[in-house]
User: Which sequence fits this backbone?
């Protein structure tokens, strides 16, 4: 008798359907509510989440997937890996220590810089570093390991939450981040130290935590090892074998569901299959092709958890297609669990609340709640026969068909244009050297021209005006008038302090991607589709559902107005196609490259219109180009090829004398410097102040031909850098690159800073530019 197919989830969004956790956290940090109230809200959310998943038909519901801030930080708390600076000496990691690691102490809460970037602490004890969780837009707190690292069980959270659910009558499958991934995701604080050597010290703590769960009655534990989809060294593969052999020895009878996600296991398959675990979860969305081999080569008694519903995106699944793939396995007697490809953490919670969406678009979507329901339908079809859920299967067929043919999705003129293979489209008229001459003649800028990256402070007044406008409290004319005044004042101020190239300040923009998405065809926006980015911070990514085009100019009027206030050159300011793509939910019915190309043509038209309106300089921000790199090295080049091509399509419609800038918020260029060169931008601004210009080595080593603005002012901190400091940074830059190549600018946009910080900092920056100019000529 075959075991019935069961439904599992690997993790559910934590933030709450109405962002209850965000509100409670921020209330607690601000001192408005106490710890007991925060913890009560958290407990309510957990309880709601368990019950909801149950009601939707999930047989296996996770516990310990919840987190007050981040599950990697929870793991550090569990094993007592608290860096010394936090002065922790207690038995258990308490709430204060936990949040100090997450956010620093005396952290000015919103000190974070980039739109989707990282938080940086102000004064006091700094927060621990944060970085992107694989290729998602979720950020985790990076564990820190030293050579003399010790571990001990310092949090009973997994056990507590397992028991908490049990008391509510719900048997859960606790989730732990696996020990090898945990070590691989950390960084060494001792030079030349490999954290994997800590494995023998770490495993006893894992064994202790697992034993507690087993003794409390947990039959299964889900253990996440997403690093198994990465390029691994032999050492890492060896660590996997060692770790799971030790855990199997220590815990006879405990069943582990070892989960991999965000890609195929690929060349780590032998390693995976050698592990003595009772179940394997594989991602069949990112890597559908791995199913056959996993089935054929896993032990017949191993439960297979199949990630058949996309945990990273918002589309309804094609239920019939999934059934066709899974049914033969079930008929062959294999014990199967159906699951999302990964934790549902990366999807919005519930589509039900999106009553304003276009009904057709809505009919193509599934958020976390809907995805669990889809899995339940699939399991019923397999267990009871398709007839039991025939109506739902028919609806799925209809939704899939309508998505394929809907005129809301297919725009033949967009396809024709994006399909064009005219190589000239992606090339400027002349090589950089000649363009530079034309640009210098036209712009007449001094050496070391001083500029900013685009945005000026989004003050409470700016936010309030936007909110009032959205609510209808003020009309369009009043809002536009407010924005014009704000813009004019900012432009005049830039002129007054002596910046050479001005910006309009981006006051009209809510977000650098959303602002464009709202004006492009093929994009939809949710009202409540929040996804956790880090801690209490959530984003609402646009949904690209159809062919992308630009019905009308998007930024030209604002540029025109800003330029009308000044004689100095005013930059046109755009977000690039790769960044728009990487910060959106994208279509799964065509390759990402295809969608990106469509966006590239839309932005190209905007570039051309800005030039026609008179813009001498146009900046195309690609903040997310690097973070779009695939997880596997072998896939980098093809990504970079199409990403670079898309940028070039965007930038190549203009005359030589029109200067194209780009901006990137990061400093790791060494391994992609050739692609950066291939963008063929005239000027690139980058983050360098924190690394003391070190990264310029990559640019000089590569002989980067064009101009560079290495950020001299770290906008991620409230600190106002003195002019001398910026002069020193510029001198360091000038040692690596000729003066003719250098610009002077901050690290990133100024939208998260206060005017009181920005004013003196930019005055100092202009002084620094003047001083280095004077010492050069
Ligand atoms: N132009 C944008 C700004 O200044 C760039 C922001 C970014 O790259 N994150 O805000
Ligand atoms: Zn930036």
Assistant:
């Amino acid at each position: 008798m075959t075991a019935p197919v069961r439904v599992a989830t690997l993790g559910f969004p934590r933030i709450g359907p109405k962002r209850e956790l965000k509100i409670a956290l921020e209330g607690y940090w601000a001192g408005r509510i106490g710890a007991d109230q925060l913890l009560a809200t958290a407990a309510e959310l957990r309880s709601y989440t368990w019950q909801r998943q149950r009601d939707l038909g999930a047989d296996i519901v996770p516990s310990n997937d919840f987190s007050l801030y981040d599950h990697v930080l929870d793991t550090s708390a569990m094993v007592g890996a608290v860096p010394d600076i936090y002065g922790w000496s207690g038995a258990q990691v308490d709430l204060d220590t936990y949040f100090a690691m997450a956010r620093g102490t005396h952290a000015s809460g919103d000190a974070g810089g980039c739109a989707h970037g990282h938080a940086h602490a102000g004064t006091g004890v700094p927060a621990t570093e944060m970085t992107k969780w694989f290729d998602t837009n979720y950020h985790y707190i990076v564990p820190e390991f030293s050579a003399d690292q010790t571990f001990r069980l310092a949090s009973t959270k997994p056990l507590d939450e397992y028991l908490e659910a049990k008391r509510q009558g719900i048997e859960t499958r606790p989730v732990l981040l696996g020990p090898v991934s945990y070590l691989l995701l950390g960084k060494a604080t001792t030079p030349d130290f490999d954290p994997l050597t800590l494995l023998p010290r770490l495993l006893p703590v894992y064994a202790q935590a697992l034993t507690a769960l087993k003794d409390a009655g947990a039959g299964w534990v889900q253990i996440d090892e997403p690093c198994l989809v990465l390029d691994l060294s032999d050492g890492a593969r060896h660590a996997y074998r060692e770790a799971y052999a030790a855990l199997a020895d220590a815990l006879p009878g405990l069943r582990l569901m070892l989960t991999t996600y965000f890609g195929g296991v690929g060349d780590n398959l032998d390693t995976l299959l050698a592990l003595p675990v009772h179940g394997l979860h594989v991602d069949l969305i990112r890597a559908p092709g791995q199913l056959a081999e996993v089935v054929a080569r896993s032990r017949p008694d191993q439960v297979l958890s199949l990630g058949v519903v996309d945990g990273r995106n918002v589309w309804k699944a094609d239920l019939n297609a999934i059934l066709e793939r899974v049914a033969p396995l079930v008929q062959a007697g294999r014990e199967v669990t159906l699951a999302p490809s990964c934790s549902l953490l990366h999807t919005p919670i519930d589509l039900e609340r999106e009553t304003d969406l276009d009904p057709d678009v809505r009919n193509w979507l599934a958020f976390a709640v809907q995805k669990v329901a889809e899995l339940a339908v699939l399991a019923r079809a397999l267990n009871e026969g398709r007839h039991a859920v025939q109506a739902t299967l028919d609806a799925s067929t209809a939704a899939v068909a309508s998505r394929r043919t809907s005129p809301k999705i297919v725009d033949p003129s967009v396809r024709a244009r994006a399909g064009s293979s005219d190589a000239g489209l992606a090339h400027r008229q002349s090589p950089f050297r000649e363009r530079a001459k034309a640009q210098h003649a036209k712009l007449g800028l001094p050496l070391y021209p001083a500029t900013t990256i685009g945005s000026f402070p989004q003050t409470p007044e700016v936010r309030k005006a936007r909110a009032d406008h959205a609510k209808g409290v003020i009309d369009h004319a009043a809002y536009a008038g407010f924005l014009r005044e704000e813009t004019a004042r900012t432009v005049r101020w830039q002129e007054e302090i002596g910046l050479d190239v001005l910006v309009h300040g981006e006051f009209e923009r809510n977000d650098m991607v959303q602002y464009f998405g709202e004006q492009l065809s093929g994009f939809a926006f949710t009202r409540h589709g929040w996804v956790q980015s880090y801690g209490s911070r959530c984003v609402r990514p646009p949904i690209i559902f159809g062919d992308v085009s630009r019905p009308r100019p998007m930024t030209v009027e604002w540029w025109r107005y800003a330029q009308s206030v000044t004689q100095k050159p005013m930059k046109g300011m755009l977000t690039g196609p790769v960044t728009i793509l990487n910060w959106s939910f994208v279509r799964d019915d065509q390759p990402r490259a295809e969608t990106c190309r469509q966006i590239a043509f839309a932005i190209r038209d905007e570039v051309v219109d800005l030039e026609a309106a008179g813009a001498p300089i146009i900046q195309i921000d690609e903040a997310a180009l690097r973070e779009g790199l695939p997880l596997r090295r072998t896939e980098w080049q093809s990504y970079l090829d199409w990403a670079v091509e898309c940028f070039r399509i965007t930038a190549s419609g203009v005359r030589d004398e029109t200067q194209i800038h780009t901006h990137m918020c990061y400093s790791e260029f060494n391994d992609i410097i050739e692609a950066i060169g291939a963008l063929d931008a005239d000027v690139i601004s980058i983050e360098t102040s924190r690394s003391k210009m070190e990264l310029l080595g990559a640019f000089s080593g590569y002989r980067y031909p064009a101009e560079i603005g290495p950020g001299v002012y770290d906008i991620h901190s409230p600190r106002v850098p003195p002019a001398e400091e910026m002069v020193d940074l510029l001198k360091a830059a000038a040692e690596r690159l000729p003066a003719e190549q250098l610009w002077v600018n901050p690290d990133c946009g100024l939208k998260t800073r206060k005017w009181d910080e920005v004013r003196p900092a930019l005055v100092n920056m202009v002084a620094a530019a003047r001083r280095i100019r004077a010492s050069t000529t």
